[in-house]
Amino acid sequence: MTLLPDVYGKLLIVRPPVPATVNKAGANYKSEVAHLDYSPRRAYDEWLSILDAIVACGGDAIYQFEAADEPLLDRGPLEVAGDGSIRPLGSREVVGRLDDVMTGRVFAANGPWVSVRDGALRAVMPNMLDHRRAEAAYYRDLLGELACAAGLALDIADNPHRWEGMADIAAVGDRVVLTYAVPGHYDHATTPKSSRSTRAGVAFAAEFTGVPESARIYAELVYPHFHGDTVHFGARPTTSEPVLVHYRGGLYGDSADVVAAGIGTDRIVAIDRDDAVEQYAGNSRQVGDGVLVPDGVSPAFAAHLERLGLVTHRVPLFELFGKAGGGPACATLYLPRSLALPGELALRYSVTRAAVRARRERIPESLLVDREYFSGKPRG
Fold this sequence. Notes:
The relative contact order is 0.22. It is built from 8 helices and 20 strands. The chain is α/β, with parallel strands linked by helices. It is globular. Strand 4 (78-80) and strand 5 (85-88) form a beta hairpin. The strands form 6 sheets. The protein has a 5-stranded mixed sheet with strand order 2-20-4-5-6, with no helix packed on it. The protein has helices at 40-56, 136-150, 199-209, 255-263, 273-278, 299-307, 318-323, 349-358; strands at 11-13, 37-38, 60-62, 78-80, 85-88, 96-97, 113-117, 120-125, 153-158, 169-172, 175-180, 216-220, 232-235, 243-246, 268-270, 285-287, 290-294, 311-315, 333-334, 367-369.
């Protein structure tokens, strides 16, 4: 089988964080805290550090800037009023409305599963919560341009079931771990939480992509691990066969035993609780022989990866992870290894790095939110 090893290419789709960075929906255990003080420019700097690390690992980031951001640029510090209107700090001028801003779009791992087969670039689209469904247009447009650049047809399918994208897919050699959540299991020890990927959703995605049932391992998540990529990632060591770097405490019931039986205990590298829950180690992202890791992971975790022959690149994540609940994996989406794109393609970060870096000066340095904006809105 060649399909699953093809999942991990060195080209990754990314999406710039919005200039009005806010934990608007609060749908995970980090973002459910209604912070009132944000730094969109710092979030952008963290995003840039992820892109630079991708290039340092021998890969490249694929992106587009978005016209919807323009009214929020070059405005200086911003503030959000209780009614959701966005204004330059101290001004009455309204430059946008927070309800119209896709604050979760930076988390590209919730994008489609992309593959190449039979002369076509194929993608199964996620089925997200209502406040994130508008994000799909970005991927449809971008994939159209990539298919054209690669000389491929384009075949896109909508997933009719709840599925939060590639964040719940972890390929390990010729097996794949498909994570999902069951209400009442996922949140059994806490208050009811937002719905997540369903088993039907991950199964549909695998079926469309061409993964046989025999290659699939289904595993249930448990709170606070809202996606599989907060629990584990598939690593490709330079010294051995593929392994799953994994925190078994992130799975419900006997799912950790199911994963161990399916992958093999000798092919699982354990993550301890502090690294997994507090530092987001499972949200690391391998590119080539390098691994982007959250900057707070322990020396022991980094040493585990280095013994696999991999080079670690620490990235700072105070805004994107500390407030919004995202890391290197959350902010990136693998394109398949067999997808060949022109080296001079203007969608590549390596080609347009100067313009991307210059944009940071246009991003608001700070954004303040009136506490009243969050009043009465469910979180978690």
